[in-house]
Amino acid sequence: KEFTPRKYFSIDRVFRNESLDATHLAEFHQVEGLVADRGLSLSNLIGTIKTFFTRIGIDDVKFKPAYNPYTEPSMEIFGYSKELKKWIEIGNSGMFRPEML
User: Fold this and answer.
1) What's the CA gap between 48 and 31, in Å, rounded?
2) Per-residue pLDDT of the chain (101 residues; tens, 9 = 90+)
3) pTM of the model
4) Neighbours of 72 (CB within 10 A)
5) 76: exposed, middle or buried (C-beta count within 10 Å: 0-12, 13-18, 19+)?
6) How far is CA 21 from CA 16, 18, 25, 86, in A?
7) How far is CA 98 from CA 18, 67, 77, 95, in A?
8) 24: which strand partners?
9) DSSP secondary-structure letter at 90?
10) Alpha helices of the chain — where are they, by DSSP H?
């Protein structure tokens, strides 16, 4: 069967068993996306993420290397909050390792 590029996205409510504090809730909403195509690079991922956050009103984003068990490279995503006047973590991302595909 011939490979066909695909894009999948979902938004849903997530529950986790975690101690509650000012930065961690037991329930939150999460956006997930998966893009499968040949020749994709880290710059494609960063561009897609920046476009997504710009479209929902978060214009100032930065990335920090991170560890995720199924992706390499992996990055945490931070957005600048004008209201809080500080950077807050708004996401996590990465490119699937070849053996995961």
Assistant:
1) 13
2) 888 999 999 989 988 888 888 777 888 888 888 898 889 999 999 999 999 999 999 999 999 999 999 999 999 999 999 998 999 989 899 998 888 77
3) 0.80
4) 13
5) middle
6) 13, 9, 7, 18
7) 32, 16, 23, 9
8) 21
9) E
10) 42-55
